[in-house]
Design goal:
This protein has 271 residues and is of the alpha/beta class. The protein has nine helices and ten strands.
Amino acid sequence: MSHIISALTIAGTDPTGGAGIQADLKTFQEREVYGMSVLTSAVAQNTQGVQAVHHLPIDFIEKQLDAVFQDIKPYAIKTGMISTIDMMELIAKYVSTESIPYVIDPVMVSTSGDALMEESSRQVIRDVLIPKATVVTPNIPEAEILVDFTIQNEEDMKKVAKVIVEELGATSVVVKGGHLDGKAVDVFYDREFHFLEADRINTKHTHGTGCTFSAAITAELAKGKSTLEAVKVGKQFITDAIQYPLNIGKGNGPTNHWGYRLKGLPNQGEE
């Protein structure tokens, strides 16, 4: 690699390593980009659920952001768990002033069902951050919260995708279909529809899937891939991560960030 490509994650922690900035940094490394992280919230969680959340002071989050941007400019940014209005308004300033790709994983509810975003923050993410997004990556429950609309099938996913792009202002969106029955079909919309399909894998080891998928997309955007290509690579990466589980943890175990290696495939997206 002739020069180092960097990516930044702004998110919360997972001390057991399956989600949050730990999952993001593992994914960046596997996708061959240099990973950087700004911590928003320290989360006491594991594969069984969230036990406690401690939000960092807003001035300290700002100091972390300044430390990154004054030294190593990222080629792409993703946000995960940003729970408060103050955090969102602060982050908006940094993604507004830099013309670099921005991925929003709208982390609102954990895999175990724990709420991770204050209700008052939901309108702010709609109004302030989503219009700045290169791509938004909600699962079905998150998409329903964003647009206040119940999703029961693929047609509903398409309607929601159009709202997020055409009304909320994102450049593109991928609505993840993992919570519906049948094949795992994700709906990508950038004013044209594309459908990304994978066989459904019967496993409970899905902790951190959203973090990992969005981090893989971020890494590919940092490399200069188109949004659709980045989403396709991310879809393959997370499918492999789910298909080859680590089988650890007493609850919903983590995905396997080197699952693609077990498939015997080259690292997707290599030049």
